[in-house]
Amino acid sequence: MTDRAQATRELILATAERLYAEHGVLAVSNRQISEAAGQGNNTAVGYHFGTRIELVRAIVRKHSGPIDRLRRRRLAGLGDHADLRDWIGCLVYPTTEHLAELGTPCWFARFAAQVMTEPSLRAVIVEETLASPSLARIVAGLARCLPGLPAEVRAERNDVTRLVLMHTMAERERALAGGAGAPGATWRAAAAGLTDALAGLWLAPVTK
After folding, report:
1. Enclosing H/E stretch for 118
2. Alpha helix (H) ranges present in the chain?
3. In angstroms, how far apart are the furthest CA atoms of the chain?
4. Do 202 and 146 touch, CB atoms closer than 8 A?
5. Residues whose CB is less than 8 angstroms from the CB of residue 158 and which lie 6 or more positions away in sequence, other chains included
6. Fewer CB atoms < 10 Å away: N or C end of the chain?
7. CA–CA separation, 39 vs 180, rounded Å?
8. Is 91:67 a contact under the CB 8 Å cutoff?
């Protein structure tokens, strides 16, 4: 791929991510993305990425790789006596560290939240991120910390954890992009608060 083609591809990716985050994936056409990216050819998105699903997949992969590297680095630092908060931290901190590295404004958290609420595209996020070996190791670690937790309760709390993480980060990202205050002075402080909240969630009693 030539440097010019690669630059165009990256520009389209960044533009699509922003528009999807701000307006919703299905509300934005390939033509609008091409125009916003300054492409005279309105078929530029289709030429470089093919379908909308492949464009979404490319955006996810742009971020999932760096996040997974941060997650694996954090996992490598766990000792033999990792506790519940350690495992939850492996869920929270890699993504917040990535968002901090992106700077303000960024759009990935809001983009991911939009994609996860769209049934026709949710599988893309699941395939590219939720099925990663590092994430599976974290889920297994959480299970070992709470061996008496019924399987159906564990599955429910996994789902709630994912939703809390995704939408809390998206709301913080939105507030920062709009110049408003957000809970936690930094992404690291926000991660600490999220870790506290999720530890409470996992340790909550189970109603019989």
Report:
1. none
2. 3-23, 30-36, 44-49, 52-76, 84-102, 108-116, 119-125, 133-145, 151-177, 187-203
3. 62
4. yes
5. 139
6. C
7. 32
8. no
Alpha carbon distance 5, 7 (integer Å): 5
Q: Output the pTM of the full model.
A: 0.92
Give the residue carrying structure tokens 């050819």. 41
Provide the 10 A C-beta neighbour count for residue 95.
24
Q: How far apart are CA 33 and CA 185, in angstroms?
A: 33
Tens digits of per-residue pLDDT, 134-156?
999 999 999 999 999 999 999 99
Q: What is the DSSP letter of 130?
A: I
Contact assessment for residue 70 and residue 97, using Cβ atoms and an 8 Å cutoff = yes
Joined tokens for residue 151: 């399987």
- Taking the C-alpha atoms of residue 67 and residue 165, their distance in angstroms, rounded to an integer, is 14
> At CB < 8 A and 24+ separation, what contacts does 41-48 make?
44/8, 44/12, 45/12, 45/16, 48/5, 48/8, 48/9, 48/12
178: helix, strand or coil = coil
| 115, two tokens | 């994609």
